[in-house]
Amino acid sequence: MGTCFTTDSPLRVAHLGIDSAISLVDDKLIERIGLDYAQKSKMPYTKVPSSKEHARSARIQLYLDLVNALVQKNFTRVLREPFSGDSEKDLYFKLLPTQDPLRLRYEKMLKLPKGDARLSEEKSLTEMMRPGSIDVNIMVKLDRPGFDDAKEALRGYAESSLCGNTSLILSAGINQALFTEMEKFPCFYRNAEGSFDKRIVLKISDFRSAEIQGKFLARKGLEVSEYRIESGLNCGGHLFPAEGELLPLILQEVAASKEKLVCDFQSSVVKYYETHGLDTKRLVPFVPKWTAQGGIGNFGEIERLVKNFGMDRCGIGSPFLLVPEATLVDGETRAQLAKANFEDIQLSYASPLDVPFSLLKNCGAEQARLKRIAEGNPGSLCPKGFLQNNTEFSSRPICTASREYQKKKLCEIEKSDIPLDQKIKEKNRVLAKSCICHELGNSALIALGLEDARSFPPEICPGPNVAYFNRIYSLKEMVDFFYGRGESLTSQNRPHMFALEILLYAKWFKDCIEEGKPLQKIARNLKRGCDFALEISKSQAFPDENLGSIQDAVARTLPLIEPYL
Prior knowledge:
The chain has 565 residues and is α/β, with parallel strands linked by helices. The protein has a 7-stranded parallel beta sheet with strand order 1-2-3-4-5-7-8. A 3-stranded antiparallel beta sheet has the order 6-10-9, with no helix packed on it.
């Protein structure tokens, strides 16, 4: 999602019953988009001065309130439409999974002759329609020294008018201070009906992460409604390869242990409710959902995740960057993305967080970065400062992608006594840093006509799976494809999602070798993952699964890791 690509997605797809999530990283970007939409829709909206207390949370709350109001307006309009065959109301049902009971009822209704029976069924179907969930995402580690960015984002969401059909997605690790802050907001606890006004979703990299975070939250009386498992490398944005653990083995462990996990937390939640005077009768039994995402490329792979690994749902992200009806991307960047091949989506070290980062290497921001280097003026002016966390050269934190930092660091490296080849390597690592907190939002401003690409070059951070989709798509054809309807939208040589993950880990392993990292444990984990992936490759294939590509990926990877076993 970057910082902008799904900022207005609820306004595009929620009235059609599709869930989407808004990143809460950049409150000033959110405010600009909110002001634009408010003006277009003639809704009241106020620009928040930076001097205002809790200005960041106020900007976020205002935007979420606006989105909620506009989604309800859009959804009410759809409810009032007739079943004409080509209305958005019809599209709502046509986008549902093929065997969804509501879709089957819709198709049966279409065959009824005009009359009271049909009118009654149309009324019943209309009453069963619900808008898609308006979710938000907070990167929990995104806290500058002296700031409470994550806490302020939490406050803005918690105090917004979103209620019932909404989730808070927490990603990128553990922030105990943020989890403790959640205690202040009743919306995260059970309401009088025993449900949640605002649900909690944890994005996790493995079962251990689910266990640690879920246990900490349970001690605060907070319950997780969904555990969202994501591949360490086969995804977009920031990447968390951990120690080479592959998704299939992680999913297998989750499938074997997830029921025990919920039981272990229940006593902590009950104890919290009792000691804090909350009504334990509200704690009606519920089972959290387990979902998976990261490089899913067709219906067959979804079927395997659901039927073999017990996932309740699957998340699809990067391919929808090629769907103008769903995401906010400027035309030029979207066209670049459609033409991109596997080598164009690269694992980079562009993030000032010093975490691997997936990006499109020829996007506007990357071209601008290389141009500044060629002109002898590397680094960014750091217009937003969300990632100012380095105190190497001063007590005042600065960003490692900034011009100020890079000039000082390059000078230090040049004066050092290290060998020339090491100097070059370290300089390249410094120059690789990109102003992602600013440039990831530029695409939205260009797409909305608020800025020009020449002065606001855009960055985009897709997952590598998008390389196998090669044009712009309509919302319906993309949804139909992932539900196993219609013709394939991917190239025939697209590797299986498990094969692609193995190849990505092999590339990352080579980087680890060059950096001199301890590799024995990583190699062992990769070997275990490859062995299990080979077992999967010999099983019965689901529709359009390219299981043969798994065997090829393993054959290419094993010689690389075997010397370190």
